[in-house]
């Protein structure tokens, strides 16, 4: 059975919001846009996952590093760890506010990317 279009199109495109689906041998395939959207979502989720692995790997090992390698007392190592966690949580919020109110998103994004590469 052929797919049914809501409108007759001459160039193969439908008006905004109208889509067609085809039924090929018992399976319904997703349109390419939906596959691409799914790939983007999966990619963002993997980036977030690896970012969290990195953050918690640093936080978990920071006290040991500060006490063994740097010679800090346990209290000082815990304070350094707490300051790192606080800075990691507050920095995105403050930079986002600064980007929206002062410089603009693109400028702050380019500046932060430059800092990241240094």
UniProtKB/TrEMBL annotation:
Membrane topology term: Multi-pass membrane protein
Localization: Membrane
GO-annotated cellular components: membrane
Key word Transmembrane helix present: yes
Keyword annotations of the record: Membrane, Transmembrane, Transmembrane helix
Domain of life: Eukaryota
Residue ranges of the TM segments: 38-66, 78-99
UniProt entry tagged with the keyword Transmembrane helix: yes
Protein name, per record: Solute carrier family 15 member 5
High-level lineage: Eukaryota, Metazoa, Chordata, Craniata, Vertebrata
